[in-house]
Write a structure and sequence with these properties.
- The chain has 2 domains: 121 residues, D-Maltodextrin-Binding Protein, domain 2, CATH 3.40.190; 85 residues, Periplasmic binding protein-like II (D-Maltodextrin-Binding Protein, domain 2, 3-Layer(aba) Sandwich).
- Helices cover 34% and strands 29% of the residues.
- It is of the alpha/beta class and 214 residues long.
- A 6-stranded mixed beta sheet has the order 2-3-1-4-11-5, sandwiched between helices.
- The radius of gyration is 19 Å and the shape is elongated.
- It is built from 8 helices and 11 strands.
- The structure holds 1-O-pyrophosphono-5-O-phosphono-alpha-D-ribofuranose.
Length: 214
């Protein structure tokens, strides 16, 4: 990527729509046509380059220094465990990390290995380690709720937003782990060498957040 430009990695997935609306409101997103299949947009006026990547890849691009900033769900930040800084809680994409399953499922029993299906094996292992509960993890890429339904797992660890997917499948939250929302992230090198430009963007975002909260 060229010098002088600030590069921002934006997610194409679940929080993409909200991220776009947000950027549009800030007036730093004029050049982007959401219907387009193009993956890189450059705003020559403010020297900002936007790249569109899969949500799970935002952390990789920022961690590797290809992007200076990224918008990503805290779920991915926690799972990837990379050396990145969280600059702002953007307040959208709110949901929770929760353990879910059939009602009355016992989570904790030293004599039993709990089987857990999830898209987030690292967070899952860390959580149950902190509870001294032995587990077997089944890594899935989506529709994790199927785990208990077909007997692959006893429970799931997943993001829960409205709870409607759990409800539609006869499952319920058994324990909440932590709150999730979209975060603005950067890497230590960009934060050191492009601090002023990054400050400009975060100030704009913070002003916007204050207005939204009024
Ligand atoms: C997520 C998550 C749950 C669902 C939760 O899946 O994995 O399945 O959304 O949302 P709810 O509580 O509002 O029902 P997503 O829609 O991203 O699809 P996926 O299962 O294919 O990953």
């Amino acid at each position: 990527m060229d010098k002088g430009y600030l590069t921002i990695a934006l997610p194409k997935g679940r929080i993409a729509k909200e991220a776009m609306i947000y950027m549009e409101k800030l007036g730093i997103y004029d050049v982007v046509k959401s219907s387009s299949r193009k993956l890189i947009f450059t705003d020559e006026v403010i020297k900002v380059r936007y790249m569109f990547v899969k949500g799970v890849d935002v952390v990789t691009y920022v961690d590797e220094g290809v992007a200076d900033l990224g918008v990503v769900g805290r779920d991915i930040v926690l799972e990837e465990g990379a050396d990145i800084y969280e600059l702002l809680d953007l307040g959208f994409g709110r949901c929770k990390f929760s353990i879910a399953g059939y009602p009355d499922t016992d989570l904790y029993s030293k004599d039993k290995v709990l089987r857990v299906a999830t898209k987030y094996p690292n967070v899952t292992k860390k959580f149950f380690q902190s509870k001294n509960q032995p587990i077997e993890v089944f890594k899935l890429s989506g529709s994790v709720e199927l785990g208990p339904l077909v007997g692959l797992s006893d429970v799931i660890m997943d993001i829960v937003e409205s709870g409607s997917t759990l409800k539609a499948n006869g499952l319920t939250v058994l324990e909440d782990i932590t709150d999730i929302s979209a975060r603005l992230i950067t890497n230590p090198v960009a934060y050191r060498y492009k601090r002023n430009r990054i400050k400009e963007i975060t100030n704009m975002l913070e002003e916007r957040l204050d207005k939204d909260n009024d």
